[in-house]
């Protein structure tokens, strides 16, 4: 490896799955990097729910990161179970948990566990916690530079925005902003479900459950540690989803408002809201334009949601972010010329992201049709080709 390559300064903004995968694969190729993260620590906030890592994206990224074998015992293949229900808890479609020996090309892993795996594989000090990026710019010499909230200036040869939906790096490349999709989630959590909420645990199963009707939905995911994360999904104006529905000072009133949206639904499904523990958090769903791309700007690129934010209805966000990180690292390792490396990465990433974003946008429409249960049942029947209960 050339001395020139070893002396590159690579700055990554954001310590999510994509940014950490990038740092890990670079490390394996002897290329140091620094990750600047706003959170004060790895445990400063809730890391979210569970992810199903696809064989051709998330798992492939872990293979390049040398972590695939460590991932397997941490994952939950049984999380591949899927239940589609109507509003009366009638089963419209069921994919049972994989049996021993069946294999599962999309095993689940909690986001927290995945983050711990990636962080544990990096040299100490790679991630700089509590570092808020105040500004990004191209310096007089054309090199990208960060200004941190404490006034520190950081110049880099390569600046990577892995900083999510509201990226501070994206404006160097694109004037696109995320747009509200018309759909909002409200996140909830049930703890110790097998003991405290056995009926809900039975209803949801060991993986994911989607209950759909009346152009709205209740989505539930089994997480590790006996938890179920619940997403109440409604079509609503963005401001109403934030201020007209959620009252942080009155959780009971918030639950009642949510329950009032599902007046004639099965009581077992309504229990996903009524029995929730802790705060209920609004999540308006935003997306960048399908096919979002930019012209090459020397030394700067994006990955994950910063590059191609989409709704969660393709199950692709974290998987694509990790694959982006791995492939960007491989391109930087393969090319002495940085612009050649960044061009190669973006040339492969743009069409891949566009296809996933288009699928996500189509699925968002499908999930909120009056006959969403039939549409999804037909889609999953075609995909599984006889491998599920009907």
Please report which band the strand proportion falls in: under 5%, 5-15%, 15-25%, 25-35%, 35-45% or over 45%.
Answer: 15-25%
**Distance between the first and last residues' Cα:** 56 Å
What fraction, in percent, of the residue positions are helical?
Answer: 25-40%
- Rounded to an integer in angstroms, the radius of gyration calculated over CA atoms is 22 Å
Helix and strand composition category: alpha/beta
The average pLDDT score comes to 92
Main sheet attributes: strand count, strand direction, barrel closure: 7 strands, mixed
Provide an overview of this structure:
It catalyses: a tetracycline + NADPH + O2 + H(+) = an 11a-hydroxytetracycline + NADP(+) + H2O. This protein has helices spanning 3-6, 17-28, 58-64, 68-74, 111-120, 193-196, 198-204, 238-244, 251-260, 267-274, 305-308, 317-334, 338-367, 372-384, and strands spanning 10-13, 34-36, 50-52, 82-85, 91-95, 108-110, 127-128, 133-138, 144-148, 153-155, 158-161, 179-190, 208-213, 216-223, 227-235, 277-287, 300-302. It has 390 residues and is of the alpha/beta class. Strands 5-4-13-14-15-12-16 form a seven-stranded mixed beta sheet, sandwiched between helices. The chain has a five-stranded parallel beta sheet with strand order 7-2-1-11-17, with helices on one face. Strands 8-9-10 form a three-stranded antiparallel beta sheet, with no helix packed on it. Strand 9 and strand 10 form a beta hairpin. The N and C termini lie far apart (56 Å).
């Amino acid at each position: 490896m050339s001395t020139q390559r070893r002396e590159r300064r690579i700055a990554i903004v954001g310590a999510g799955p994509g940014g950490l995968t990038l740092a890990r694969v670079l490390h394996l190729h002897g290329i140091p990097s620094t990750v600047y993260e706003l959170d004060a620590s790895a445990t400063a906030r809730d890391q979210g729910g569970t992810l199903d890592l696809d064989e051709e994206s998330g798992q492939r990224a872990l293979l390049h990161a040398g972590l695939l074998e460590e991932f397997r015992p941490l994952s939950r293949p049984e999380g591949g179970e899927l239940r589609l229900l109507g509003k009366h808890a009638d089963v419209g479609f069921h994919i049972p948990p994989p049996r021993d020996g069946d294999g599962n090309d999309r095993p689940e892993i909690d986001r927290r566990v995945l983050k711990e795996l990636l962080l544990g594989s990096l040299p100490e000090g790679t991630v700089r916690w509590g570092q808020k990026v105040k500004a990004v710019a191209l310096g007089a010499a054309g090199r990208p530079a960060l200004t941190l909230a404490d006034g520190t200036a950081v110049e880099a040869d390569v600046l990577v925005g892995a900083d999510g939906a509201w990226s501070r790096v994206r404006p160097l490349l694109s004037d696109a902003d995320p747009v509200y999709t018309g759909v909002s989630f409200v996140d909830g959590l049930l703890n110790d479900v097998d003991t405290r909420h056995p009926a809900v645990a039975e209803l949801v199963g060991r993986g994911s459950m989607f209950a759909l009707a009346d152009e709205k939905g209740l989505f539930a995911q089994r997480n590790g540690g006996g938890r179920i994360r619940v997403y109440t999904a409604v079509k609503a104006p963005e401001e109403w989803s934030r201020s007209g529905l959620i009252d942080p000072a009155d959780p009971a009133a918030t639950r009642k408002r949510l329950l009032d949206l599902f007046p004639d639904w099965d009581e077992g499904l309504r229990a996903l809201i009524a029995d929730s523990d802790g705060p209920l958090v609004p999540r308006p769903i935003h997306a960048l334009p399908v096919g979002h791309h930019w012209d090459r700007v020397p030394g700067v690129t994006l990955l994950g949601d910063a590059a191609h934010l989409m709704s969660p209805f393709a199950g692709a966000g974290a998987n694509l972010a990790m694959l982006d990180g791995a492939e960007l690292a491989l391109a930087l390792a393969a090319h002495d010329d940085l612009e050649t490396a960044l061009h190669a990465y973006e040339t492969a990433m743009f069409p891949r992201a566009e296809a996933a974003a288009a699928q996500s946008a189509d699925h968002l429409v499908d999930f909120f049709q009056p006959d969403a249960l039939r549409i999804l049942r037909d889609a999953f029947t075609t995909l599984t080709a006889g491998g599920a209960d009907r």
